[in-house]
Amino acid sequence: FLLLTKVPDDVPTEKRSLDLGGAALATVAFGSMAYGLTSMSSESAGGATSHSLVAVVAGLVVLAAFIWWERRQSEPMIELGLFANRAFSGANIVTFFLYFSLSAILFYLPMLLIAGWGLNTAVVGFTFMPLSVAIAVLSGPVGNLSDRVGPRFPIAAGSLLVAVAFAGAAVTVGMGVRDFWLGIFPFMVVMGIGMALVVSPLSTAIMTSVEDRDTGAASGINNAVSRIGGLMAVAAMGSVAAFAYDWALGPQGVEAMPGFGEPLTASIGEGLDAVRIAASDFAFSAVAWVTAGLCLVSAIVAWVSVSGSALPWQKWAQDHRP
What we know:
The protein is mainly alpha-helical. The chain has 11 helices and no strands. It has helices at residues 2-6, 20-41, 50-71, 86-116, 121-124, 129-149, 152-174, 180-208, 215-249, 270-305, 312-319. α4 (86-116) packs parallel to α9 and α9 (215-249) packs antiparallel against α10 (270-305). The longest helix has 36 residues, at 270-305. It starts with a helix and ends with a helix.
């Protein structure tokens, strides 16, 4: 309703056709890779089946074909020339790693808490609250900060906070701390604050890194990158979790127990159940450590590639210089 009544229509500046061939190639490429990675997660720690590897390799080949196709189109779905811009490429790398990590944690953490620890689903729902609240409350002030000092500092600082949150969750879970409110929720608050620092400045970094005529394409590419990151995360981290879970169980319980994130359907005894929970903790910790590392990479990439004029305290000192 608000869009219809308050937002004026855009006036097209040129007529463009849809790149249906590029859309089809991209769909096949990422679909094939996601299928292969997801199939690997259903295998034991002994290794992936040949059809899983074939699917991943086929996806990579089709992805190469997609790039070849896009370079030869007069009206491509993705203008690859935009990636020659260091700031644009850096912001998209940050986007991919951050949303890859966020999607992995928010997908596999509830599996640990519900199926592994047996927590109530209503309690586990509070996992998502800090992210929503922090973005709603902090996006305005963070946007103002980004306007003053540039997007580099808030993106790098936010990425680093998210890395600290995921590493903290990995440590507490790995140590066997199974208290949601003390061992998980505080780190989700830190994660929410970190993402709130990133979201608005990241959009600014993308939109200001290209010419005005390319802002629509840049925004669309960045949105696609975040969605692809989430897709790949759920598929790839499933394999990491499954392999870590099976390795932690060892031969004593692989046949007798459900997979990671699967609820118990029958009693397996107190001893084996303790082994199952410990293996679930280890599997999630493995995922959390990987995502923490990727968020740290995001912070570094943001600092060296995204524009920014000064640190907040330097800008304050400049503004208040006698």
